[in-house]
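Lab notebook page, bench 4
Experiment: in silico fold of construct C2
Operator: M.H.
Input chain length: 74 residues
Purpose: comparison with the prior construct
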Amino acid sequence: PPPAPPPMPFIYMGKLLEEGKLTVFLTKQDRYYAVKAGDTLDGAYRVERVDAQQVLFTYLPLNMQQTLTLGGAN
């Protein structure tokens, strides 16, 4: 089979809308992240887009996109 990115390692914790900019809070094991579009996480994931429903990542080693759906109505 063709190479595929690993399962999404981040878990959605919440979001904050401040001055029209959305920040999403994620966790991975014992680390916490406050992410916005353009951020790079762990040198392997680039945040392409953040909106009220999802975060779009690019898994850099394979240049493949993955989506994390945001739950709840935070």
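Observations: The longest strand covers residues 11-18. The radius of gyration is 12 Å.
Next step: discuss at group meeting.
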